[in-house]
Design goal:
The chain is of the alpha/beta class. The chain is 30% helix and 23% strand. It is found in: Cell envelope.
Length: 155
């Protein structure tokens, strides 16, 4: 009987613990960018895509934005979508991007309306590198570097 109480407690925890769905290997992403244009990750097949979650208040995010922008600008087979994971007013994010231009589309996702096919970031910045076949090639937690991107993409 000594095993009964701990087993019952473990079973109760398993029933009440949240169940997280696994992120699909080939995620979809359909959002409206801050400039009002639709963005569909599915239309990017044939290219590497950097899906970068960041926020205006995140110092490491701000530091990596120019690196990602430069990488995309110098690699014709690579595109990016910035996900401002931020409850800030969209006008403030646009003003931030006027001071820190990136040259690729940016959409806002708020914490109360997360993306369907992407895991919610546990910290920022968080980046997913999507391969030309649409499958997740790599998940980065923390700043991503051009060297890390090149190591996977092969350039």
């Amino acid at each position: 009987m000594k095993w009964f109480a701990p087993s019952l407690l473990l079973a109760a925890c398993m029933v009440t613990a949240p169940i997280w769905a696994a992120m699909p290997a080939q995620p979809s992403l359909k959002v409206t960018t801050l400039d009002g244009k639709p963005y569909d990750l599915g239309t990017q097949r044939g290219h590497w895509v950097i899906v970068n979650f960041w926020a205006t208040w995140c110092a490491p995010c701000i530091k990596e934005l120019p690196d990602i922008a430069h990488f995309v600008a110098t690699h014709p087979n690579v595109t990016a979508i910035g996900i401002a994971y931020d409850d800030t007013d969209p006008a403030d994010i646009r003003a931030f991007l006027d001071k820190h231009p990136v040259g690729y589309p940016v959409a806002q996702v708020t914490m109360d309306k997360p993306l369907k096919d992407f895991d919610q970031p546990l910290g920022l910045p968080t980046t997913w590198l999507i391969a030309p076949d649409g499958k997740v090639a790599k998940h980065f937690m923390g700043p991503v570097t051009p060297a890390a991107l090149s190591a996977i993409i092969g350039h």
